[in-house]
Design a protein that fits this description.
With about 100 residues, the chain is mainly α. α2 runs antiparallel to α3 and α3 runs antiparallel to α4. The radius of gyration is 16 Å and the shape is globular. The model has no long low-confidence stretch (mean pLDDT about 90).
C-alpha cells in the first residue's frame, strides 16, 4: 500500500492548475505558418534549449512587474521548463519544418 504523502507546498494542487493551464494554451498560442508554436520553430533550427531558457528568464524577470504577482507568469515559467525538460532529457517529437 502506498503511503499517503503530506505535501508541504500544495504540489498536487499546483500540478493540477498547471495541467489545466497547459491544456488551455493549445487553443491560445500565437501561430504562424502551418499553425506552429515558437518552440517547434526553435527546435527545428537547433535552438530549442536556448529558446526555452530565454522564455523562462523573460517571464521570471517580468514576474511581479506586469500585473503584480501574476500567477500566469509563473505558469508560463513552469510550462517552458517542461518544454525545456522535454527537449533536453526526453527528446520528444522533433520538428523538421524547414
Amino acid at each position: 500500500m502506498k503511503k499517503k504523502i503530506d505535501y508541504a507546498y500544495n504540489e498536487p494542487k499546483v500540478l493540477k492548475e498547471l495541467s489545466d493551464y497547459v491544456d488551455a494554451t493549445y487553443n491560445q498560442h500565437y501561430v504562424g505558418r502551418d499553425n506552429l508554436q515558437c518552440g517547434q520553430v526553435w527546435e527545428s533550427i537547433g535552438i530549442g534549449k536556448e529558446g526555452y531558457q530565454a522564455a523562462i528568464i523573460k517571464y521570471a524577470m517580468r514576474f511581479g512587474k506586469k500585473g503584480g504577482d501574476n500567477p500566469a507568469d509563473l505558469k508560463k515559467i513552469m510550462h517552458y521548463t517542461m518544454m525545456l525538460y522535454n527537449e533536453v532529457f526526453l527528446r520528444g517529437k522533433k520538428w523538421n519544418i524547414y
